[in-house]
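Re: weekly structure request thread

Next one in the queue (114 aa):
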Amino acid sequence: MKFKFDCVFYYVSDLEAAVEFYRDVLGFKLTSRDVVARFDVDGVLFEIVPGRPGGEGNARFCLKVDEIAAARAELQKKGVRVSAIEDKGQGKLAFFSDPDGNELALWEYAKPRP
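Done, posted below.
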């Protein structure tokens, strides 16, 4: 399985306030916005995602895969505990951790409908 860089994302408690901060205060270029907001930071995709109430700060390193079920199975064969796959509408998501407990994510974009 080949893993490709997708993005780094933060969960935020208030999407509008976070968009204003990253766009207006830090000057990040807002490239798209739907359920999440996406910014281009020197060619790196940075997303802010509505998340847990209470604003627990956190970040994820997200890896893009073509087939999330196959990637999940391959990691499990190597002894990695991987969460269940969640369908997010625009794609599928699963989480796992490195040996220090840092969380990583697998992401499979939804296939475009013909």
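The longest strand covers residues 4-12. The beta strands are 4-12, 29-33, 37-41, 44-50, 59-64, 86-87, 91-97, 103-109.
Next request, please.
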